[in-house]
Amino acid sequence: MSSLFLVKCHWKRPSLCCTFVLSKAISYDKRKQQKMEKKIKISSGGMNARVGHLLVNRLIPNHHLHAVGPFVFLDHLYPTEQKAGIPKPPTGEAAHPHRGIATFSYLFSGALQHYDSRGHHGIVTAGGAQWMKAGNGVIHDENPAPDFVQQGGILHGLQFWINLPAKNKAELPDYLAVQPADMPITELPDDAGTIKVLIGTCGVNASPVTTFLNEFMYHITLNPKASFTYPTKDTLEYAAFIPSEEIKINGTVFSKSEVVAFEQDNGDLTFSNNGITQAHVILFGGSHYSEPIVAEGPFVMNSSKEIAAAYGDFFDGKYGEIRY
User: Fold this and answer.
1) What is the pLDDT of residues 202-217, one digit of tens each?
2) From CA 114, how far away is CA 171, in angstroms rounded?
3) 3-state class of 169 per DSSP?
4) From residue 216, how far is each of 32, 129, 199, 236, 315 by CA, in Å?
5) Which stretch of DSSP H or E encloses residue 38?
6) Which CATH number fits domain 16-85+92-315: 2.60.120.10, 1.10.10.10, 3.30.70.1060, 1.10.600.10?
7) What is the mean pLDDT of the chain?
8) Which among 56, 77, 100, 253 is least buried, having the fewest CB atoms inside 10 angstroms?
9) Would you kindly state where each structural domain of the chain is located, as residue ranges?
């Protein structure tokens, strides 16, 4: 995983298509109370782990939840105060390899800098994300950006691993620095809040991040005393992550770094914020990953033989080196 990590956005373009769908879902729920709610399969509070000097909550995988669609890994970097300091040139001491996945690091606050062995470099700030397709092998280094180091502040974010289909595991690596303005935001009906498209589509709004198995990720912000009902598809797998403030999902309250996975049935997801401040939810998922999954260290492949090859190619220097 990353050596580190691991909201205001500047573009709010209402999407008539997405707004119509969401509004229709809410009014439909009001008219027909017998409309089924999606059942909760499992919830988890995660387990603490260390990533360098940082403390994270490791939520996926766990004993009961191994994947949600193609998402096979989720770390929550707790809000961590970084004291102001003098930026230093990167040393590469925390650089590490990946193969067979795409990584996605999303920032609630702070700023990250990325380098990798395929020549990519980028910096993203709060509300932005780093997306990297490891493909057939890459070494990357992800650390607080120099300006953030100089100013100090709160570093808070998420990192997901997206398992690539077998055919895409053999592709060349790729990278995208997704700035806050690159992610479209739609206003929810009844002044309930906003939905920001991090990955995938919502109506006519789409994230610039490449997808492989219909994966999606939305940052839902709910205003105080507001509710929002999202209609799901029984062909996709769904989960929600709640970073801090309490959110009620289909009648059950969750908060403070919890992940909730849902049954693959045909039902709605109703999110309610009964608090007096805004609350946040990350809704994510995608198509079921039907190929074998073999994970070891920083590699996720389809067989033990491929894992051995991933390590072999790394130690043979085939992933290249980072040129800072």
Assistant:
1) 989 999 999 999 999 9
2) 20
3) helix
4) 27, 14, 5, 10, 34
5) none
6) 2.60.120.10
7) 91
8) 253
9) 16-85+92-315
